[in-house]
Amino acid sequence: MTTFSWETKKIENKEVIHPILEEAKVSLFIKREDLLHNQVSGNKFRKLKYNLIKARKLGFDTILTFGGAYSNHIAATAAAGKLVGLQTIGVIRGEELARDLEKTLLGNSTLRFASENGMQLKFVSRASYREKATASFLEKLKEEFGAFYCIPEGGTNELAVQGCGEIIGEKDRSFDIICCAVGTGGTISGISNGSYKHQRIIGFPALKGDFLSAEIKKYTKDSNWDLVNKYHFNGYGKINLQLIEFINTFKEEQNISLDPIYTGKMMYGIFDMIKEGVFTKNTRILAVHTGGLQGIAGMNKKLEKKNFPPITI
Ligand SMILES: *Cc1c(COP(=O)(O)O)cnc(C)c1O
């Protein structure tokens, strides 16, 4: 019945043409991981692959995972679960969202998408959510839902890193620098493991905090990566007019949408570093587009309330 396969199609890297690049004499290409799958896009496809294969192999029929109300990981898990025939449960931060579920789903396209794909949503308070990784919390979930294969918030674990190790391939050998956005660190860890010896990886954290390096070191042996902490725009999910304008101009000029949480901040950072002359002449940069475009609708709702212009998709 299902024709789903984790096999990925070959997608050409897309060159970015821009006066700033010409002036600096560096070249920039985008790895279009956002085009891997229309429902399970980008790095979430990579991160789920070996987890869902293992869950099935172990005989589980249900996946349980965690996320915020706009989480790309929640949306991707719901869709991927449906595609491979696994039930999904999403433990969502914010018990207030359960008060009027119909209204919540009407106003939140991420949760609506998850629900339409069969994900059972369990809303918990912020206090409980903080305890989500504890044995006692997981035990209670098992009493409520029965046995499940558990994937952590953001989807990062050993198998997710293994999947992200497949992002860089033979065709990417000619690049000197590989850039990616960083949330929990799983993606950059996989890229670090899967890249070629002469390549350096630059990660752009989408949030504040100095715990990330330690996280990445859990999954990588290599020290071929650096984090640039200058472009988080004050924290996770935080944006400003400058970033909105950058994303919309980029879309207009390159015809590629960026999301405001991750890839927009990364690309802003890459352009800023090129302007600052960080990269020497003839440097070849590959920026990984990790997807996340499903989150734009949710962000635009917030922007509308603040009288900010919307992000174009
Ligand atoms: C989740 C996500 C990231 C962050 O990936 P990590 O493995 O958590 O670092 C980056 N970009 C997009 C679009 C994402 O959805």
Secondary structure: elements and pairs:
Blueprint: E1 14-16, H1 19-24, E2 27-31, H2 42-57, E3 62-67, H3 72-84, E4 87-93, H4 101-107, H5 109-116, E5 120-124, H6 126-130, H7 135-145, E6 149-151, H8 158-164, E7 177-182, H9 186-194, E8 200-205, H10 212-219, E9 225-227, H11 241-254, H12 263-275, E10 284-288, H13 296-305
This protein binds pyridoxal-5'-phosphate (PLP).
Describe this structure in words.
The structure is a single chain. 41% of the residues lie in helices and 16% in strands. With 313 residues, the protein is an alpha/beta fold. The strands form two sheets. It has a six-stranded mixed β-sheet with strand order 1-2-10-7-8-9. The chain has a four-stranded parallel β-sheet with strand order 5-4-3-6. It binds pyridoxal-5'-phosphate.
Main structural class: alpha/beta
* Tally of DSSP β-strands: 10
Name the overall outline. globular
* Average pLDDT figure: 97
H-E order: EHEHEHEHHEHHEHEHEHEHHEH
Described by strand count, sense and barrel closure, the largest sheet is: 6 strands, mixed
Q: Which residues sit in consecutive blocks of at least 5 with pLDDT less than 50?
A: none
How many helices?
13
Ligands in the model, by name, code or SMILES, are: pyridoxal-5'-phosphate
End-to-end gap: 33 Å
Largest sheet, spatial ordering of strands: 1-2-10-7-8-9
Q: Residue share in helices?
A: 40-55%
Fraction in beta strands: 15-25%
Rounded to the nearest angstrom, the radius of gyration is: 19 Å
